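We read letters as residues; the fold follows as tokens. Both lines appear below.
***
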Amino acid sequence: MGLRDRITAGLKDAMREKDQTRLSTLRLINAAIKDQDIAARGAGQTEGVDEAAVLAILGKMVKQRQESVRAYEEGGRLELAEQERAEIAVIEDFLPRQLDEGEVAAAVDAAISETGADSIRDMGRVMGILKGKYTGQMDFGMVGPMVKARLS
């Protein structure tokens, strides 16, 4: 079952169970995917975005909500922070398992050896390999400095 199908099935289940938080979050996910589909059609892709792009959308949505949680906590709006955390939990149900630090380090080493990277100029190729294989499984904001350190 593809990711889009899982999201649609989750939407239907949330409607049946009358789970408003899950329902509204899944509707937001669907809207974001449809926006990207429309943009892709404008660029000439007839089938919309692929699974990797959907994973990227979900990852971006999680990151946005994490930033909102920090802002709400700093502002003393704990009820809004909890709502954002609930949305993060729903979105993460559709993301693949996150790699731990050891697995990320092994993936970085494998990508460096696969590309034959030996200097900082090769960082883009290494990051491209990692994004192709591990979209949604690692935080690329954390991986970038790790790759940079290994290539320096």
Q: What stands out?
A: The chain has two domains: 3-92, 101-151. The radius of gyration is 18 Å. The chain has seven helices and no strands. The helical segments are 3-17, 20-42, 51-74, 78-92, 101-115, 123-134, 140-151.
